[in-house]
Amino acid sequence: MLNFNLSKTIIYAPLAGISDSPARRIAKDHGADITVSELISAEGLVAGGKRTFDLTKFTDFERPFGLQLFGAKPDKMAEGAKILAEMKPDFIDINFGCPAKKVVGKNGGSSILRDLKLFENIILGIVNAVNIPVTIKMRSGWDDDTLTYIEAGKIAEDCGVRAITLHPRTRAQRFGGQSDWTHIAELKEALNIPVIGNGDIRNPIDAKNMFDQTSCDAVMIGRGSFGNPWIFENVKEYLKSGNLLPDPTPREKIELAIKHFEMNIEHYDHPYGMYRMRRNFCWYIKSLQHASNARSELMKLTEADEIKEFFNKYLETIEARNKLNNSQSVSI
Fold first, then answer.
1. Distance between CA atoms of residues 324 and 318, nearest Å
2. What is the rounded CA–CA span in Å between residue 258 and residue 281?
3. What is the pLDDT of residues 100-130, one digit of tens each?
4. What CATH number has the domain spanning 250-331?
């Protein structure tokens, strides 16, 4: 059994280059029940690579927390899992879902779904190597002609996996088209272990629909949280009361962008922490006034004080315009 409850939980998805410790802490602070690391290379761990080990850093605040491992060699994966287990996460998650060329090109991620014997050997090696729960995240298959999610799910359950996250797209789809939630429902029906649904949850209504349509035990949110960590608490409130929380104000978005930036600088130092934040800046301000011009200006700035000053002035401009618009509406 898992050493934490999965029932109706909301999980922050593992996202390469995105779900680092600062982002996970923000997600947790905004209602995520469980967090998972970026995908970590087993071969990088075994080789002692500093950049790889940097990805394993986490705080107790992020718990329940899982470290996600990827690779294609059973022996390296088992050895890498042992290294991760020493760091005492709550679970180890195996990545069988990543569609990125640099991962698939090394026969990792979703590529392994084409070879279910290798899939089985990797899982068995890890389950036998560690004394903490092992979960997996996978896609429906390599393409529409090789939908392996039911067979793969049964293999994983027989090997001792404690829970499975299914992103019901194929590798060929990448992130295009619509995910097929019927795959989640079918996998849940076929297995006795918990099934976590993932894919196309953009708002609380989507999350409730996934629970209702698939009977999954938990949902995992990734892209729907980009610049919008409020989605986690909003989903939980909607599931509890049926009420939607108000959208975050421009001030709340900009203040959180600044906080996230400060956390990144503390975690990575300057300038790397600043570069890591650039796409997050774009996501935070996406729906705000004159966001396109603001993005262009932000990309030119490299110093922390400049960036904070820019955001403060940008917020002043937005609030002044909103105040003017409101006063004109009242006078009319």
1. 10
2. 9
3. 777 876 777 888 999 999 999 999 999 999 9
4. 1.10.1200
**252 to 270, 298, 312: CA distances (angstroms):** 24, 18, 12
Q: Name the residue with tokens 């729907």.
A: 224
The domain 9-241 is classified under which CATH number: 3.20.20.70, 3.30.420.40, 3.10.290.10, 3.40.50.2300? 3.20.20.70
| DSSP secondary structure, 249-313, as one string | PHHHHHHHHHHHHHHHHHHH-TTHHHHHHHHHHHHHTTTSTTHHHHHHHHTT--SHHHHHHHHHH
Q: Answer yes or no: is pLDDT of 159 > 50.
A: yes
The H or E element containing residue 183 is helix 182-190
Q: Bridge partners of 163?
A: 135
Query: Does this model's pTM top 0.90?
Result: yes
Q: Amino acid identity of 187?
A: L
Residue length of the chain: 332
> What residue spans define the domains of the chain?
9-241, 250-331
Q: What is the DSSP letter of 71?
A: -
Predicted confidence band of residue 330 (pLDDT cuts 50, 70, 90):
very low
Closest by Cα among 23, 111, 122 to 69 = 122
Cite the active site residues: 98
Mean pLDDT of 163-167: 98
